[in-house]
Structure formats: C-alpha cells, structure tokens
Amino acid sequence: MQIVIVGKERGRASELDQALSDFGLDWNARWLEDAATLLDNGATAVEAIDVVVCEMQAGDRRGTEVLAALRERHPEAVRILLLDDGQDADALRSMASAHRLLRQPLDAGELIEAVESVVELRELLDNPVLKEAVGRIESLPPPPKLYLDLTQLLRDPETSSAEVAELLSQDPVLAAKMLRLCNSAYFSAGRVVTDIRAAVTRLGLQNTQQLVLATEAFGTPAEVDGIDREAMQARALRTSRLAAQILGGSSAELAATAGLLAEVGRLLPGMRSTLPDGTEQNPEGPHFAEAGAYLLGLWGLPMPIVEAVANHHQPGRMRMSGFWVAGAVHVAAALVADTPVDEAYLRSVGQIDKLPKWRLLGAQLSEAA
After folding, report:
1. Cβ pair 20, 5 in contact under 8 A
2. Could you tell me which PROSITE patterns the record lists for this protein (predicted)?
C-alpha cells in the first residue's frame, strides 16, 4: 500500500510509522511538503499511489486543486482531504475532488482506519477498470456529510430530537427537502409539518437518518441522461423500508441503508445500466451496482452495505453463504421495481417459502405510498 501525504504534517511521520509497526502493516508512507513533486515534475514523478492525503493548503496550491489534478494522473488513487476546524464550507464547495475527509492534525489511527477500509473495498471489488472509471468522474457525488455527522451523534443513546433538528438545520436546503419528504403521502399522517424538529419527532430518529442519507445521495450535482431522480428516490425509500422488514432483527438497519442506496450507481455517468425499454446504456462501462458500491466504500460506509449494493442484482455472487443483507435488498429491490426475483438463489439459501409473504409486504407498502 503506497500512501503519499502532502503538507506540513511531516512531523507526524514517526507517529504514523510507529502505529504501522504496532499494527503489523507493511505500508509505505511518503511525505511531501508541497505538491510540486506530484504535479510539476510530470505524471510519473510518483509511479504508484494507492492513497493520497492532502492538506487544504499544500504549499502554494489549494489541496482541492491538487486532488483534482491527481484525479486525471492517478484516477485509481483514493483521495483524502485534511481539514482544520472551520474549513467545512471551503471543502464542501470542492468535494468533487475528494473521496474522504479527515481532521487535521493528522491522527495515525484515523488514517489507518480509513486506509484499511480501502484495502477491504479493493479486495471485494478488485476491478481496475471500475476503479479508474469511478476515479475519473469529475462530478463525483460528495460524501453525505450530514448523514455521517448524524450517525456520529446518534451513537449517544441520550441524543434528543432537538439535537438532531439543530444539526439538520445547519443545511437549509436539506432541511427543506426533508420537510417535503416528511409531508409526502409516504410519510404523512395527515397533519402538515412545517418545522424540522416536528419532522424529526414524527419520523423518529431512524427514519430521519435514512431520509437524510436519501436526500444527500440523490441530490448530487452529476447529470446523467435518462435518470428521473424523484422516481428513483421514491423507489429507494420503498426498497429501504421493505428490506428492513424482510430481514428484521439487529441487521434491519443495515438492510434499510443498503436498500436505500442500491441504485445510487445509476447517478454516475458512463456506467452500464438497463433502461426501462430493456436496452443497455453504456454496455462497455462497469455495472452501476458495482460502481455505486465502490463509491459507498470510498465514502466509508460499512462493508456489509457496500457488499450488498454491489451484489443486490446478483445475490448468488455473495462471498458469504446464507441469506443476509444482500438477499433482503435483492428481494426488496425486485419487488419494488417489479422485476424478477432470483428464486433459484432463494431456494439455495432456504428462503423460497417466505417469498409470498414478502410479496404481500411489498404490495402493502406500494398501496401506502
């Protein structure tokens, strides 16, 4: 694993080296004070990069400019931006160039955790064409920042609806979209909700978390021909709820999130996708399911979600035997979209007898929408 770190963090090299030794990781970290070696000396100045970490100001260049240039020269590299407190606004304006954000000063443990997730992602989706195709997309959807902040907040069981509402109110556009969804027929209980705190109370914390993720994921700036975002988001919400009901138990939330994001790869330009008329769009490109899964892995979402999104259209390819998140998402997505369920797969995992019940659940959700 080749890691390049650009900026004034060289003083932390010994801390990172010690942490790598403690964890038994044979990674090579190269430290550069500015971006000249990467950008001014040609594309081959650094032959191979798996991960590049860059400060917001790297010498005389902006970190986002450095990462954008590296997108062209090393599209396979995972790009991480380091931020000081108060730099969120600057970062969000240029997040198309970065896959992940970390806090500054650089914490060795946080960097190792981020890079290990990349290693696991590449073991799951070991496809050079896919990595380069996703890496070259200029309008790459940014990580769902409020969703990740909300997830962190909800780790405290004492978190209140008021605290959640205060966090969501930091983004007026997202808050407006949340209120629109809350008042839709799918979630409405008849009374119009006009403030975000009341919306959180009506929806509950888990539904709120899912809606924030849906709003951020499907509100990306990328334009892809033939995509009806509102219809896609409506399918995603139904798939999310149905997948959670199908799986149930402690894994229901994983299934809900994976179901919500099953089609997110359709928002990436150049991916292979079957259109409503049955024709294939971009038949030479990577499949949208794997592309979406790779994007989610770059965002740092849990690997069970990534694996489920990658395989929801072909659950038999799962590395793990049995019926879990990918199986539930496959059934839910097929029922919501009215496409064939893989009955051979369900027989192989001993779940075929439950399909009539799941069809009924799907029909009830469609009626409620």
Report:
1. no
2. HDOD, RESPONSE_REGULATORY
